[in-house]
Each structure stands twice: as structure tokens, then as C-alpha cells.
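Re: [ENG-882] Designed sequences occasionally contain unexpected residues at chain ends

Forwarding the minimal case from QA. C-alpha cells:
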């Protein structure tokens, strides 16, 4: 992967960036995504934010190497703190970390989202918490994608401002994804269901405590939700 050829996962993220957007890529690592977007003419200006010094320095070097220092600003900052009002950022991408960490980033500096109209969020795990956050903060799902790369399955949740209603099953598996029922979607949730069934079988053999009873009820509910979708 490089600034000219992204991974399958980041390519999928890139396709949701509106043409002409001003994007902040939070947790940008080598700044491959902003460089790619500028090279392709999808965006004219971008912010690459990194909280860790090593990846920040890598991003600075990459932007300079690509000759894009006039169009991509790299900042060492904690999450959304990388965005300044004068940037006029309207699109934020956060990719390649867990859903709870993405939500923590969104909640830490909510004022930075004032001018933002689209969020492209790619959690490696626990996309459910992103949908829960969206419901609670007046963001609506514009689109979703699920894909497999290097034996790992990733989800992308694209949000725009607005309200929505989701069932418990849709919060768990995604409303757009459950409608499409792609082979990757089915594979993911069949695998999850089988894992839950194994755990459920194992705890049947354990001493029955209130904690075990609670876990059994939780797993049973999850299995029923997924069975209702597949």
C-alpha cells in the first residue's frame, strides 16, 4: 500500500469521500488516504491528524515526498483537536481502530464537528457502538459497507446529520448491510453466531451463578437477533 494504491479497506473508505470535500483524516498514520484523495483530484485540501509522534513524522515525510505540503496539513494532536475552525473541514474519516475508540474520539472534542456534514467511520471491531452513538447524537446512516481483506472482515459506517430509528438487530448488524445480505455479511454473522453458541454451550457446564445467568441471557438474545436477520 502507498499513496497511489490504497489497501482494499482504505479504497472502500475513499469512495465515500464527496468530491470537493475538505477532509480531516484522524489517525492518518502515513497519510496515505489524504495523499491518495488529493492525487485523484477528489479533494483539494486535507488535514492529517496523528496523536503519536512516530506516525506523525511518517505522515509529514510522506506528504513532503508526494509534493503535497501545500494541500495537506499534518498535525500532531489528540483526535479531533487536529481540526481548526479555519480549515473549514466538512468531512471526517476515522479508520483502522476499534469502535469504542472511534466513539471516544468523537465525544472528546464535539465542538470540532460543528461544520462537519459527513463522517466515514471504519471500525475494526464493534461497529455496534458507532450506530448507538449516531442514534444518540442526531446522526443518520447514509450508507454502510462490509468487506474482507487479509482474512479480516471490516465494516464502514457513513453518517450524515439527521435522525433515524433502528431496531436492536439493525444496531447490531447494520440496516444497509442486513438489507443487502452480501456473502461477507453472512460469513461474519454466521461466524459470530457459532462463537456465541460455543460459549453458551461451555457455560452450561459451569456453576450457575447470577453472572452466568446474565451471560446466558445476553448470548441467547444475540443469537436470536442474528437468526432473525440471516
Amino acid at each position: 500500500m502507498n499513496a497511489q494504491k490504497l489497501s482494499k479497506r482504505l479504497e472502500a473508505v475513499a469512495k465515500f469521500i464527496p468530491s470537493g470535500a475538505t477532509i480531516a483524516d484522524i489517525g492518518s498514520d502515513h497519510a496515505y488516504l489524504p495523499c491518495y484523495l488529493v492525487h485523484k483530484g477528489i479533494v483539494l485540501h486535507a488535514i492529517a491528524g496523528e496523536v503519536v509522534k512516530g506516525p506523525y513524522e511518517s505522515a509529514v515525510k510522506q506528504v513532503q515526498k508526494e509534493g503535497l505540503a501545500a494541500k495537506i496539513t499534518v498535525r500532531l494532536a489528540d483526535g479531533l483537536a487536529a481540526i481548526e475552525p479555519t480549515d473549514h473541514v466538512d468531512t471526517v474519516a476515522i479508520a483502522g481502530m476499534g469502535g469504542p475508540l472511534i466513539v471516544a474520539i468523537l465525544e472528546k472534542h464535539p465542538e470540532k464537528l460543528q461544520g462537519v456534514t459527513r463522517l466515514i467511520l471504519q471500525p475494526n471491531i464493534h461497529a455496534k457502538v458507532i450506530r448507538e452513538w449516531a442514534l444518540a447524537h442526531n446522526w443518520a446512516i447514509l450508507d454502510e459497507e462490509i468487506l474482507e481483506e487479509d482474512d479480516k472482515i471490516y465494516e464502514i459506517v457513513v453518517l450524515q446529520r439527521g435522525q433515524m430509528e433502528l431496531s436492536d438487530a439493525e444496531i447490531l448488524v447494520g440496516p444497509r448491510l442486513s438489507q443487502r445480505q452480501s456473502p461477507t455479511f453472512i460469513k461474519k454473522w454466521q461466524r459470530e453466531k457459532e462463537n456465541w453458541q460455543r460459549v453458551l454451550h461451555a457455560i452450561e457446564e459451569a456453576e450457575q451463578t447470577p453472572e452466568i445467568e446474565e451471560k446466558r441471557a445476553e448470548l441467547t438474545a444475540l443469537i436470536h437477533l442474528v437468526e432473525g436477520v440471516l
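QA comment: On inspection the terminal residues look reasonable. The first strand starts at residue 22 and ends at 26. Proposing we downgrade this to a documentation issue.
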